[in-house]
Structures are given as structure tokens and as C-alpha cells.
């Protein structure tokens, strides 16, 4: 099992549990994670969902060694269908679960790791947290769930995509991407305390408040942007298949291996 799931005090805690690979996301982890979100959404005893990660890092992004049950010849059509399901559909479903959700992030949160914390309503970051999306080096303009512009603002989003540099927890708090920055040793305690405060609120009021904010964002174009930029993302895969053949994957693996 790549996910741990626990319920206590009206809080469902979902824990990424692949610390030996910095919680890199293989297909099994994503499927288990989606099952956990669905379970929490349907459990009437759960008021708040808390997403956390075991080990030094929240997530190193997609597990590039996990090739899924793929055909012998990879086509853009196959990539599109597979990613639409596990990346786009999953993340939008988590974002719209009618219960407040909180992500607790420590260490590195790289590329696909952003797709796990951004759908959450609140993010509490440890003071050592760093957020990055370096996949432009693959000829792809960002991960499949394009929250960049909404989370960071247009110019900061371009900066981190163009350069691949990490955003610190303090910088992320200034942009509004992160709600709180806390000492690493206090991350679990502070996040749990926040979840308990929210869980004491009337569930229907929480649901309506979340719906109001999410629908406001959707009216502003969030949902349409996520859908359309996913197609832009897939053209990067098409270019890689036809021209480059993903030679940069080894460099990304090397970068992840050097994470402290």
C-alpha cells in the first residue's frame, strides 16, 4: 500500500507513504490516493480531509520509472487518455470534493507534486518546503493540472516555468499559494490543530463556503483554463515523441536522486 488512511476527530488523514522514493507518484499510488479521497468524501463522519506525506519530502512528482501497462508503441492518443484519467480527472475531482481539505507540505514538492497539494483548499508549508516545476526542460510547458497562473500570478508563474527554479515556502506565502509557514518540527501539530478548528464548524456551512469560492474561480475561468491548458500540455508530449524522444528524462531522474 502506497497510501495510509485514518479517521479521527472528524478528520480523514491521507498519508503518502513512499518515502524511499520521496513519495514519487506511480500509477498505484495515484489510484490508491483517488480511492482515499472518494472514501473520505462519502464518509458522513468526515468533515475535513488532511493530506500529508511520510519522510523528508512531500513529493518528487511523477515516478518516471513507472511506465504503466503501456502498449509496445507509445502514441500521443494513449498518453492523452492515460493522463486525462489519472492526472486531470483525479485532480479536478479532489478539488471539488464538498469538504474542506488541507495539504501539509515539507521538503521538495516537484512538478507532479503540485498536482497533489494545489487541489486542496488550504496549504500549510514547513519552513523547508520548496515548490518547483522544471518540466520545460522536457519541452513541456508545465504539469497537467495548470494551477500555476492562479496560485502564483501570471509573471511569477512564467518565471518558475521558464527557469525551473524552486519557490520557497515564504515566497509561496507571499503569493497566497500557501496559507501558513511553520517550523518543520511543528508541521503535523499545526496542521492537525487547523483541521480540528475547521472540523468544529457546521459541515453544511463549510460545504457552501467552499462551493462559493470554487464557483467564483470557475466563473473567472479556472475550470476552462485547466481543461484547455491540459491540451497544450499534451502537445509537448507529441513533440517529444516525434522529435526528442524524451532524452531529458535521465537528467530529471538524476536531479531527483540528488535531493537532500
Explain what this protein looks like in three dimensions.
It comes from Amycolatopsis acididurans. InterPro entries: ClpP/crotonase-like_dom_sf, Enoyl-CoA_hydra/iso. It holds the Pfam family ECH_1. This is Enoyl-CoA hydratase. A hairpin with a 2-residue loop joins strand 1 and strand 2. 39% of the residues are buried. This protein has a single domain (3-257), classed as 2-enoyl-CoA Hydratase, Chain A, domain 1 (Alpha-Beta Complex), CATH 3.90.226.10. It is of the alpha/beta class. The protein is 48% helix and 15% strand.
Helix and strand layout, with pairings?
Blueprint: E1 3-8, E2 11-16, H1 27-42, E3 48-53, H2 76-95, E4 101-105, E5 108-110, H3 114-117, E6 122-126, E7 130-132, H4 148-152, H5 154-163, E8 167-168, H6 169-175, E9 180-182, H7 187-199, H8 203-219, H9 222-244, H10 249-257
Parallel strand pairs: 2-3, 3-4, 4-6, 5-7, 6-9
Antiparallel strand pairs: 1-2, 7-8
Helix pairs in contact: 1-2, 2-9
Question: What Rg, in angstroms, do the CA atoms define?
Answer: 18 Å
Shape: globular
Neighbour order of strands in the largest sheet: 1-2-3-4-6-9
Tally of individual helices: 10
Using DSSP, what is the number of strands? 9
CATH level 1 name: Alpha Beta
Assigned CATH architecture: Alpha-Beta Complex
User: How much helical structure, as a percent, in the residues?
Assistant: 40-55%
Average the pLDDT over all residues and give the rounded result.
Answer: 90
Distance linking N and C termini = 25 Å
Main sheet makeup? 6 strands, mixed
Quaternary structure of the protein: single chain
**Secondary-structure element pattern, one letter each:** EEHEHEEHEEHHEHEHHHH
Structural class: alpha/beta
Count of individual domains: 1
- The third-level CATH topology is 2-enoyl-CoA Hydratase, Chain A, domain 1
The CATH superfamily name is 2-enoyl-CoA Hydratase, Chain A, domain 1
InterPro entries: ClpP/crotonase-like_dom_sf, Enoyl-CoA_hydra/iso
Protein name: Enoyl-CoA hydratase
Pfam family, one: ECH_1
Family: Belongs to the enoyl-CoA hydratase/isomerase family.
